[in-house]
Specification:
single chain; about 110 residues; alpha+beta; 3-stranded antiparallel beta sheet; two-stranded antiparallel sheet; 1 helix
């Protein structure tokens, strides 16, 4: 192969590889889809610690673990300016209980 052909192939490969660097980054999303026939127990009473600057209290909630409801205690989460924390909830739908994950929503 002559020098000119090698230069063209090298330049073409460089262009193709550089286009990959320009691709828009994608975001990975994972979701939990839980639908059960067993209603969650009532929420437990938690003593909320005093407020912490720069943090949001995420109250405890029931999760479905190993075929039963398990209580997850509340925690402090780092605040996200411009967002509001919405904790996980169980919603009754067509005779089943559907779990909606916690999320951050715009103010």
């Amino acid at each position: 192969m002559n020098t000119y052909a090698k230069a063209v192939l090298t330049a073409g490969a460089a262009v193709v590889l550089s286009l990959g660097a320009l691709a828009a980054p994608s975001t990975a999303q994972a979701g939990v889809a839980i639908s059960i026939d067993v209603a969650p127990p009532p929420p437990r009473v938690e003593v909320v610690p005093p407020p912490r600057v720069g943090y949001v209290w995420a109250p405890g909630h029931w999760e479905w673990v190993g075929g039963r409801h398990a209580w997850v205690t509340g925690v402090w989460l780092p605040a996200r300016p411009g967002y509001v924390y919405h904790g996980p909830v169980w919603v009754a739908r067509h005779g089943h209980w559907v779990y909606r994950e916690a999320r951050w929503g715009r103010r």
